[in-house]
Amino acid sequence: MSSNTGLIDSLTLRQILIERYSAGEAKRLVKYLNRLSKDLAKKIKSDYENVRAVALAKQLEKVTTTYVNQYGLEMIKGLNDFGKDEADFAREALLALTAAETVNPASLRQIKAVITKVPMKLISGKSTEKITIDQAVKSFSKNKSKQVGQMLRDGALLGKTTNEIVEDITGLVGSQFESQAATLVKTTTGHMGEQARKETYLANDDVIDGWEFTATLDGKTSITCASLDGNKYPLNTGPLPKLHWNCRSVAVPAVNPEYDLGSEITGERASINGPVAANRTYGGWLKDQNKSVRIEVLGEERAKLFDSGKLSIGKFTDKSGKVYSLPELKRLNPLAFSDKAKAKVIKSKAIPKPIPKPVSPFNNPTKKNRNAWNISSTVDSRPDFVNIMSVYQGVRLSRLNGQKTKGAWAKGSSQINMPPSYQVGNLGNQATWRHEMGHVIDHGIGGQDEMQQYFSSTSKFKIASMNDADKLLAAGKNNKSTSAGRLIQEKTKTDLQKMNVDLVKDNQIKLMEKFAVKNQIDLNKLASVLEESSNLLPNGLAGANNDELRSVYKTMIALKHKDAEEFYAIAIMRKDPFEQRDNYRKDGSYGLFSDLVGSSTRNNVASFHNGFAGHSDSYYAEANFFGYTESFANLNGLYGHKNKYWWDIVKMFTPEMAKVYEGVIK
């Protein structure tokens, strides 16, 4: 057996032992949670009727923090010992399975530093969460304490009895906490193990000259890990596991040929179907599985591309392991989405009649740049939208860039400025073009009956805008002090409490479908919006994990209660401002939506100053009509989106403005 094959076998067995260790640690945590549950129940029963809910909630939070922190300290101490054991294991494996006569030990100081200095880089959609083990434990403690306190406050607000409160909180601790705690233990243990073994490899870089990404061969493996399986990297480079919560992939060291024991025998690696050749990649293994397994791993659309042979498993992610959305895959691999291959298979010798190519309404031979913007931004748009865009296509296009001409803007119905950095092929920039053309159309139609330069300044549009704004304000987070606002808040919390995160995926989706039908929401179409216009569903609804499904459920609740801020925040808001910016710029739609809400409520909902996309208070103060024309422009941008469900969403939040816009366009 070669050294590399021996190390694969050794690490495979080791992972089984580590899984058992993690499970044992999780069970130990459950004991803490059981004691916590009993103490919380005792505290609620004795004080709920006698102590104000706010004060009691703080006391429960303190009790929860004490228990979870106590376990956290023990867990970190255990991980330090575990790290030393893993480094020793790696050293012994190199001594036994390579020709090296001596193997240097890893730095214990470096291993200890993993807890506080070496962050896990956990991928979720398009974002990567960088968090150390110490930070993860503290975050878990803080979040769980807040959840307990909030559940008591919510129960008191809804008038629940003592027994109902006890049942809610003990249920929360006994189900959700246990599941999330197991995930925390498993992921942090895996991270410590990988880092400790890496330190051993680095201390022996004459023996080990690289490593190979090795995923688990079964249907539970993520697209990220499946696509990276078999990739080889130099030491201290590449996307080292663990790459996401509950990640099971491992880094297998590659032995310098000088120290390889030498053998032509390939060896074996484990899979759910039994041992397979050690050089078998995940992609090769997946091809031999049932179609249902491929769909479970990749999602339906990606499975079709994989089955057709047009895209290999490695094409579904970038180098870091972040999964490409379907629109991104199409942009990066246009031939894979082409039907040319199918067109070659013609059984009949009859020559089909050529289908006449539709004539574009944007075909001015002297205005190619302007034509390109109009054509790209109206792909698959409604015919009446293409028509109104063509009516006002005579606008002059400028490409200015500077302090006074910063960004994109429109001047009446005569000029649009798109800076040189704005590209025709960029979906977000196309949304900007539709927005700026909205200003042009607004001015071009005008309000002559009322002596107004812009149609949006007419009483018809203004009244619609103010009526929609009143409803948005009623559901906005800044208006929870009103009776209407409190009622919406209570109903929202009631819906959130009905969510069952412990259901298996199929049952969770059925629960969501039931909620969607009841509230006149098309779940599949909503999912397509979330996949195309944000990073919330990188693998579509079929490939969504539990956290992503929960976010979709919360999005539907926001739609039901017309909570525009929550609808935007769930899909877009991120701690990293640059990540958030890239998120809402994906195809620009969420930016248009946020701006629509902010402009119609003058930043009282979805305020630009609170991190939402839109315009500042000082901008709206410059002229009274600015807010109205911005609303019209955003309606134009969203009405022209190729995904028609965006307009259905607009009609849920701003039905009166949508009706007036449709009337004037048609």
Q: Could you walk me through the main structural features you see in this protein, from its secondary elements to its overall organization?
A:
- With 666 residues, this protein is mainly alpha-helical.
- The chain folds into three domains: 241 residues, no CATH class; 82 residues, no CATH class; 210 residues, no CATH class.
- It has 26 helices and ten strands.
- The chain has a three-stranded antiparallel beta sheet. Strands 8-10-9 form a three-stranded mixed beta sheet, with helices on one face.
- A hairpin with a 3-residue loop joins strand 9 and strand 10.
- Helix 2 runs antiparallel to helix 3, helix 20 packs antiparallel against helix 22 and helix 25 crosses helix 26.
- The longest helix has 45 residues.
- About 2% of the residues have low confidence.
Map the helices and strands.
Blueprint: H1 3-47, H2 53-97, H3 108-117, E1 120-124, E2 127-131, H4 133-157, H5 162-202, E3 208-214, H6 223-228, E4 232-233, E5 250-255, E6 268-269, E7 276-277, H7 282-287, H8 291-298, H9 300-308, H10 326-332, H11 340-343, H12 368-377, H13 383-391, E8 396-398, E9 409-411, E10 415-417, H14 427-445, H15 459-475, H16 483-497, H17 505-518, H18 523-533, H19 546-560, H20 564-572, H21 577-584, H22 589-601, H23 617-622, H24 626-639, H25 645-653, H26 655-665
Parallel strand pairs: 8-10
Antiparallel strand pairs: 1-2, 3-4, 3-5, 6-7, 9-10
Helix pairs in contact: 1-2, 1-5, 2-3, 2-4, 2-5, 3-5, 4-5, 8-9, 12-14, 14-24, 15-26, 17-19, 19-20, 20-22, 22-24, 25-26
